[in-house]
Amino acid sequence: MSFLAPIWLVLTAAVAVPLFLHLMRRRIDMRREFPAARYLLRAEKENVRRLKLRNLLLMLLRTLTLLFLAMAAARPIGELLGSGHVPSAIAVVVDNSMSTGAIVSGNPLLGRFKTMARSVVQGASANDETWVVTADGTVAGGARSVVLEAIDRIEPLGGRADLMAAITHAAGLVLAADLPASTVVVVTDGQSSQWPGDLSLGPVRVVAYAPSDTAPYNRAVTMAEPRPPRWSPKGSVTVGASGADSVTFRVTLGGRTAARGLLRGSDEQVVRLEPSERGWLAGAVDLTPDELRGDDERHFAVWIGDAPAVSVLPGAGVFVREAVDALVQSALVTRGSAVEVAPIDEATKLPALLIAPTDPVRLGAANRNLERLGVPWRLEEVRRDETVARGTDVDGTSVRVRFPLRSAPGATAAPDTLATASGEPWIVAGPDYVLVGSPMTADATTLPVRAQFLPWLSNLLSQRLTREGSGLMHAEPGAPIRLPAGVTGFEGDSTIFSAGATVKAPSRTGVFFLRRGEERVGALVVNPEREESRLDRLSGPELTARLRGRDVVVTADPSEVTQRAFDASNQRPLQAILLLLALACLVAEMLVVRQAEPRGVRQAA
Question: How far is CA 312 from the centre of its chain?
Fold first, then answer.
């Protein structure tokens, strides 16, 4: 036998009270005999043995009553005796990741999981402590009604979450409760991608439910990518889906259907659009609904505006002038003064594409102009050693003449290096500028004569050097994100964030516009992880092998989950038994006292 509240055993000292009173009754300080009472001596001697036995029995019953009450207050537990189950700390982990929204036999899997979780919590006694933990780490505990309400509010997440972290947290909760039994109940679909490795939970008993039926077939939108991110105003959306069969898709933009099409297998399609709207727009690609609705739609956001107005200074070079002429003819840029393309030493303002001068004598003038424009970079002495550039869109470009770039003294901004040459910065970017460390001539670099030069230049002018539409962010549901400077909140949400705050992305998918005051300045696109669309499951033995605890039980029978959750020990609480014994002693004492009363007194009563 052991006790959950041994401090109350100090009450057993009260058993000395009946014994003390019994002994006090036997003390006789003075004995006087009266002649008239002598005839009673004979009767007293005949009855003394019966009186002694009665008093001894009363003392024993009263002592046992106090002893049983004191032991019951200490909440004893013992093997094989008692009723119910040993006081237990039970945390129910409900997998509510996106995959549990799949429809099986006409109902979502999550509905089945919530029913099992309710059954476990309802089976808990007043001596138990219960919690419910969801896959995104949300915890609810306390009174049974509070936990049951939390279970009813559980909804499928928009993405994957971290089930293993939730189970680990649940194990910490039950161990901290310091009760005789610590059990974690896990209800999950056993999705393989949620279990990348083994999970050790220490001295915790684990009861897990995983369905044994086959996962439903699933098709998902795997790609909905606007290209380029800013349209001026033309653009395209690259659409892709998983699966081997053909499926129809729809592209919506600004709440209206923009295109429809047919995807064959896992092929990708490019949908070209030219919307009339301007500014930030939300879009989506959706498929015909199947058993898992959460991945039948994928969101995107795009900024739509007029083509950037570009001016090219004469010193930029013939290749740059001809490339800009081609972009103007394609309506990707227009003539104007919004963005300047110029040699570093001739540039007059930002935003600008700054190109190294063709004459090394202009090095000093170039550095002075960089300082005047507020660009935190400087040119070093010219180098004439052939090397190969590494970077997006320019990888493999030959560089023969270059001015190595170095940060200006006192520069605090983090460098954004777009390309390197011999491991040193060659093309760098920052707010309102892109700086190239070589002149755009054929003898300095092969970049202007390569096929990638035109799309590279178009991307810089319409994406890097255009101030509007730069606030596009991507995140997974519930992931931490750092908001851009100046963003004060999400559109439609009254919460105000501090500058550069780190917040959690919404747990549901969609496009959430960023605002600065009342102005829309960007968009956060939240989409589920692509691996969440793979519904293949672990078998029961495989899941058992991944879970490491004191005792691991994996079952596919929902009724077995509740039964197994509370049989962690053959010990049972003895409190009720002891209280019944104390009550029996009190009843016996009452009977003994009434039996000793004179018959006339009993009849009068």
Answer: 50
Read off the pLDDT of each residue in 116-126 and give the average, rounded to a whole number. Answer: 91
Written in H, E and C, the secondary structure of 434-502 is: EEECCCCCCCCECHHHCCCHHHHHHHHHHHHCCCCCCCEEEECCCCEEECCCCCCEECCCCCCCCCCCE
Domain 88-215+537-568 grouped into CATH 3.40.50.1110 = no
At 297, the pLDDT band (50, 70, 90 cuts) reads very high
Helix and strand numbers (H, E) in the chain are: 12, 38
Q: Does the pLDDT of residue 188 top 80, yes or no? A: yes
Q: Is the pLDDT of residue 29 over 60?
A: no
What is d(CA 320, CA 353) in angstroms, rounded to the nearest whole number? 11
- Taking the CA of residue 9 as centre, how many other CA atoms within 13 Å lie in the half-sphere pointing to its CB? 8
Cβ–Cβ < 8 Å for 504, 479: yes
pLDDT at 15 exceeding the cut of 70: no
Q: What is the rounded CA–CA span in Å between residue 422 and residue 146?
A: 63
Q: Give the angle 480-242-211 at the CA atoms, nearest 5°.
A: 75
210, 216, 217, 223 alpha-carbon torsion, rounded to 10°? -60
* Mean pLDDT, the chain, whole residue set: 84
What is the per-residue DSSP string for 293-355? GGGSEEEEEEEE-PPPEEEE-GGG-HHHHHHHHHHHHTTSSEESSSEEEEETTT--SSSEEEE
Q: Which long-range contacts (CB under 8 A, 24 or more apart) does 451-454 make?
A: 452/393, 452/394, 453/319, 453/323, 454/323, 454/326, 454/327
Give the global pTM. Answer: 0.69
Kindly list the domain boundaries of the chain, sorted by start residue.
2-82+573-604, 88-215+537-568, 309-464, 472-526
Q: Does domain 309-464 have CATH number 3.40.50?
A: yes
Structure tokens at 225: 């990518």
Q: What's the one-letter identity of residue 340?
A: E
CA 77 to chain centre: 39
pLDDT at 82: 44
Distance CA 357, CA 378 (A): 13
Beta bridge partners of 181: 88
